[in-house]
Write a structure and sequence with these properties.
Blueprint (H helix, E strand, L loop, with lengths): L2 E10 L2 E11 L4 E5 L6 H9 L6 E6 L2 E2 L8 E4 L12 H11 L5 H11 L16 H14 L4 E5 L7 H16 L3 E5 L3 H4 L5 E6 L2 E7 H5 L2 H6 L6 H13 L9 H10 L4
Parallel strand pairs: 3-8, 3-9, 6-7, 7-8
Antiparallel strand pairs: 1-2, 1-4, 4-5, 9-10
Length: 268
């Protein structure tokens, strides 16, 4: 489902965050919203989910304006997992959303969802408050996946996760994309998102400063610097080779693929 910002304005008191923001987030892609702290990234997610109202303009999902009637179509992972955990067991935590949306096959949905995020079923009996931050993160993701929304919006999904868990998330997001999901995420972890996202929205001062496929945006050192961000190290290396040697080895997601390219051009 496509998400559109239609001349959206939003302010916190006298602090204007967006003034007539217009953009389209394509269906079936993994899109990332990046920018410096306070640029409005999380506010965009809140507007998509309808947690806060637009001052002017509107956000649409598919053919509908954002409202309670489309809430089941959107799964929202908050920046802090504790903000969306409030039950005494992992089972009850995941069950809560399923009952709210009057889903069928609740038990099988719960068990399937914990497997998707890499848990054994034994996790279901545990108290989520006693889990690590990374485990809480995965419980929150499982709670969303259980009711099978069309759109997933994720605010800093890697908080508290180690590299193994991050790689599991990458595989999960790619599988969800193949299943037709639209994924929109906010992250400061630039080296993480460049491995799997399709499209980037770079925001600055309440507007889209630059948008495009991930390589065009994330390799643009000038634009990234203007927005207070650093180019992913693997892309920076490719830029450096081109600038110093005049050799364009291209951009890669994984370091091993980049090393192969370096050897391919070993006749420098």
């Amino acid at each position: 489902m496509e998400v559109k910002f239609n001349d959206v304005s939003f302010s916190y008191g006298k602090n204007v965050i967006f003034d007539k923001l217009t953009c389209s987030i394509s269906s079936g892609l993994i899109s990332a919203i990046i920018g410096s702290s306070g640029s409005g990234k999380s506010t965009m997610l809140d507007l998509i989910d309808g947690l806060i109202p637009c001052s002017n303009g509107y956000v649409s999902v598919g053919n509908y304006k954002v409202n309670d009637s489309i809430r089941k179509s959107i799964g929202y992972l908050f920046q802090f997992s504790d903000d969306q955990i409030f039950n005494s067991s992992v089972y009850k935590e995941i069950e809560f959303g399923l009952k709210c949306f009057k889903c069928d096959n609740i038990d099988s949905r719960i068990r399937d969802s914990v497997k998707l995020v890499g848990f054994e079923e034994s996790i279901l009996a545990m108290n989520p408050y006693k889990l690590s931050n990374g485990e809480k993160r995965k419980v929150a993701i499982a709670s969303i996946l259980a009711y099978d929304p069309d759109i997933l919006i994720l605010d800093e999904p890697t908080v508290g996760l180690d590299n193994i868990s991050k790689n599991c998330l990458i595989k999960l997001f790619k599988d969800l994309k193949k299943a037709g999901k639209t994924i929109i995420l906010v992250s400061h972890d630039i080296n993480f998102i460049h491995k799997f996202v399709d499209y980037i929205y770079l925001i600055k001062d309440g507007r889209i400063y630059l948008e495009g496929n991930k390589y065009d945006v994330l390799s643009n050192e000038e634009a990234m610097s203007e927005c207070g961000l650093v180019v992913p190290s693997i892309l920076h290396f490719s830029n450096l080779v081109y600038n110093k040697k005049g050799v364009k080895i291209g951009y890669r997601d994984e370091i091993n693929d980049l090393i192969k390219d370096v050897y391919r051009y070993a006749k420098w």
